[in-house]
Design goal:
13 helices, mainly alpha, two-stranded antiparallel sheet, 70% helix, single chain, 2 strands
């Protein structure tokens, strides 16, 4: 019981939560416009390698995050071109983007780094304790003694929620995902809105990818994302396309992920529990919860449906 409520476990939970919720927010924006992005794993992987390499060669994590965001946006816009302009099947194109991202990322890494005896490393982001808030017992140690990207994830949840549900532009975006013909009738450019959603959502996915080497590992490996893109896709469904509920889901799944890391690091438990079981625990938990939650979830009605203003519904 002491392990379940350990402060360091909660701190690690927020550390593991940030890339999930950042990617989930990007996917939420994209799906709210009516585009299903199942290539998210490949896009996040591309963000990881570009973020790591630019940080490694420039010495600036900020430059790494910016380039990672741009690379994620470019690959997502490729998905948008096929899905919006060419009206191709979004699932098929998404799977193609997924394979492309997973294939091109290690290729870029090997071309940039070459054959080396030791794996290149970058310094991970340091904790930044917020004055006053960071000194609050228990809560301050957990929420306000984190790195800058974790703080950014707090802000992004609030900002995306406000944008989607409290602004006219957010209303137009949601209209494109629910009823694009009605949106087109009142003068909303559906294609432009969807392209914009993909461009902005791709920025989020790229930053989520850069988070992994810059905060968690300090290096890039081929399997660095390790299914987190798929988990973010699942969190969109878990949260019913509402950022606040997705944030709750991200905390829940990050807690399970952090728990398996903590248990695996303790010798007394590592001898009893197979490490393979601990590694699969977050994904099994995710599937069980998703089966229960997805039953009543209603996606945007125009999701995966290409819009052609000349066609008859």
């Amino acid at each position: 019981m002491s392990l379940l409520f350990d402060i360091s476990l909660f701190q690690l939970t927020l550390l593991m939560m940030a890339p999930l919720i950042i990617a989930c927010l990007g996917e939420t924006i994209i799906e709210r416009s009516g585009i299903l992005n199942v290539g998210i794993e490949g896009i996040v992987t591309l963000g990881s390698v570009t973020g790591f390499l630019l940080t490694y060669y420039s010495g600036s994590a900020i430059i790494g995050c910016i380039v990672a965001a741009l690379s994620g946006s470019v690959l997502t816009l490729l998905l948008a071109y096929f899905s919006i302009t060419l009206r191709a099947n979004q699932i098929v194109i998404g799977l193609g983007i997924f394979v492309l991202g997973l294939g091109i990322s290690p290729t870029i890494y090997r071309l940039a780094v070459g054959v080396v005896q030791s794996i290149p490393q970058v310094p991970t982001l340091k904790e930044i304790s917020i004055p006053i808030l960071g000194s609050i017992p228990f809560i301050g140690e957990i929420f306000f003694a984190q790195n800058g990207l974790v703080y950014m994830s707090y802000f992004l949840v609030a900002a995306v929620s406000f944008f989607l549900f409290k602004t006219p532009l957010g209303l137009r975006l949601r209209a494109c995902g629910e009823n694009p013909r009605a949106a087109d009738t009142v003068g909303i450019d559906v294609a432009r809105m969807r392209y914009g959603a993909c461009a902005v959502g791709g920025l989020f996915l790229g930053v989520a990818g850069a988070y992994l080497p810059l905060v968690i590992s300090g290096s890039f490996t081929d399997n660095i994302v390790n299914g987190r893109g798929w988990l973010a896709l699942m969190l969109v469904i878990f949260g019913r396309w509402v950022p606040v509920w997705s944030f709750v889901g991200a905390l829940l799944f990050a807690y399970v992920d952090a728990f398996q890391f903590k248990v695996n690091a303790l010798p007394q438990y590592a001898k009893i529990i197979p490490p393979q079981f601990l590694l699969m625990l977050p994904y099994v938990f995710a599937m069980i919860v998703l089966v229960q939650v997805a039953r009543g979830a209603e996606s945007p009605r125009a999701l995966t449906r290409p819009y052609d203003r000349e066609a008859r519904d």
